[in-house]
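Pipeline run #58 for the internal structure catalog. This entry was flagged by the ingest filter as a single-chain record with no existing model, so it goes straight to prediction. Upstream metadata was stripped on purpose; only the residue string is passed forward. Reviewer on rotation: M.T. Logging verbosity set to normal.
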Amino acid sequence: MSEIKLKNGLTIVTTPFDSEFVTIAFYVNKGARDEKDDELGIAHLVEHMVFKGTINRDRKQIWADIQKNGGILNACTTEDYTMFFVHCLKEYMDEALDVIYELVFLNTIPEEEFELEKSVVVEEVKMYENQIEQQALVLLNKTLYPNNKNRWDVGSTPENVSKITRKQVIDFINRNYIPQNITLYVTGDVEQKHFVDKMEDYLRDFEFIKSSPEIRAKNVKLNFDDAKKSKDGSQSAMIAYYPMSLKNNKEVIMDEISNYILGDGFNSRFMTIREDFGYVYSLECDTDFDGFDEEGYSLVFTQLNNQNIPKTKEVIEGILEEYCNDGVSDEEFDCAVNNIKFKIRKSFETVNKTNETIIGNRRKGIPETEKELMELLNSITKADFDKFIKDKFKDVKVNYIVVEQTR
């Protein structure tokens, strides 16, 4: 892997991968957390709008120039970033780069397309609003971040999106889509110099502001509390969550081991809720944290009948208490480590997975190569993990987010 920062501020990361395919991604280090209160939902709206036209291509030509060569073009918006990516055969990578570069730097936000695409985004937001999982996650965010509206829902609400103007979209792009905020990630059988020359040529005559205004709140103290709402339907959603702050790379990997033992697969601890009680079909565990110096949390998400919620809460708390008091067996630990090894290897299986893994790991601040990750995993002993469990789960307090069915 090679990294270089150009004089204009753009960072380029190239990762060698012996393949006939190439993955190219522009990672804009700005997302929903960088929105003002009067423009909630704008980061996601911008992601859509740049596809409507550039200086050299209309919306149809954007897609035609990728799809005629069998390529795949897409984008995504999160709390922290917006990303535009293309996956194509190596022989077509220059044309693919040209298209995706124009989306980021030469977008025009055509006036005649604006209201039409905004209505598309409103419908997307409505679609997610009707999903019980999304409602539970939004309620969780509102509980954790009561004073940070731009962390409640990346898409925001139909009402908020409907109010956003074309001028606001252009202003958001001008203040955030600048080289200092952007990294170009390329994975494949490529030379870094090729992309350095390309981007220096592309951006030679541009004038950007030197830095973006700082809107993103940092070191936010999380509010752990119970919350509940009702939704028409025949099934409820529940999130059990508890504090989980991770201080270094080793703790991030031990947290992955822990989440595997607790909630990944039919032999996991929480799967007893399904296998011994029949209360749920599936469940998942995850951990979210903004950085080693900030608070984080772990969660267990599931969907179930509301009559089984009290007993399920009791089972979850009992499992976590036993987990802290008794630890795990050598067999459980070895099984979890082997599964994390498999996941690490699989995450570097193809050019697009490798690119995605490097971007995700850089965001977390953990090692970005398979070799480094495997070395880190292999350095963790059973004694290390036992101590991790004792430290992180001692006197843990579980809170619950419930979206309860009405029938």
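catalog note: The first strand starts at residue 2 and ends at 5.
catalog note: The chain is about 45% helix and 20% strand.
status: ready for reviewer M.T.
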